[in-house]
Amino acid sequence: MIRLSLSSGEPLHLKPSPNRKFTGLRIPGSNLYSSDRAGQTLHLHIYQHRLYRITLRQFYFTKAVQIIITEPDNWLRLEIPLSGRFSVIPKRGKEFQLDPGTYHLTDQPVFACKYAEKAPSSYFTVHFSPELLASIGSEQTPGTRSPGPVPKDLLEMLYDILKCPFQESLRDFYYANKVREILFTHTVSLPVVLPGELSPEQIAQMYEADRIMANNLDGKITIPELARMLGTNFVTLKKNYEKVFGIGLFPRLMQRKMEHIKLLLEKTDKPLKEIADLAGYQTLPGFINAFRKRFKMTPNDWRKERRGF
Length: 309
Hints:
This protein is α+β, with helices and mostly antiparallel strands. The chain folds into 2 domains: 3-188, Jelly Rolls (Sandwich), CATH 2.60.120; 200-306, Orthogonal Bundle (Arc Repressor Mutant, subunit A). The chain has helices at residues 130-134, 152-162, 168-188, 200-214, 223-229, 234-245, 249-267, 272-278, 284-295, 299-306, and strands at residues 3-6, 11-12, 15-17, 31-37, 40-48, 52-61, 65-70, 76-83, 86-90, 96-98, 102-106, 110-115, 121-128, 145-149. It has an 8-stranded antiparallel beta sheet. β4 and β5 (40-48) form a beta hairpin. α2 (152-162) packs antiparallel against α3 and α4 (200-214) crosses α6 (234-245). The chain is globular, with a radius of gyration of 20 Å. 25% of the residues are buried.
């Protein structure tokens, strides 16, 4: 189990918490550990497998603070910030900043993080065991990596994990495949070039917009509302998002929504009405018409075709 402590050495105790009552972003099927006392709120979601571990860490402090994080092992660890900004002080090497849109790989089990006051931050980690790395069968063994822009395909795999629709053994199988995909994508991806006319803060803001949009496919958050959440305006959000991701906000939202719908149709037995509700359609006929317009067939016909009926 991960250990957290203040720089003074005082431990920050995390206790098991009922996941079913948690309403925020989480990893489906994970165990939740929380600490909520004056001046801090900590949530740690852990999905543990013998070959890998997936975590989502959500921290909030009312005062600027530095905490010491001790991992339970020295497995290779990939870290991707989802929201907020924080500094990392490794045991070996120089302090660096992690923003949404960046990631790195490390095998250092002990490090310090600086968190700003009243600035909620969350980040996603995947731990790869030595056994998993050895099973890849490639001479190009992944190693540590300095912070840099995250490949978009890798980011989509992270979002897929957070939206996992499967249960129990199928979920284990799904996560195992996604973890290997993440490792492969990291290994073969070319360096990401970000638009030079935007500041690091503006780029991080667009990655936060992308994360919020990817995890709210039900249409409950509109693009103007998203702009207000991020402290910007509709026009600036649309313009900067396209600069960073090379696609407009609305086309990307529809693309994501339809990809998730196709996954639910093909891989689950959820009825069409439930899928329509999850995708934010107010009526079943509206959902069917939108799907037919995009794919030239009804959702039921697409499901039958993909399943070989």
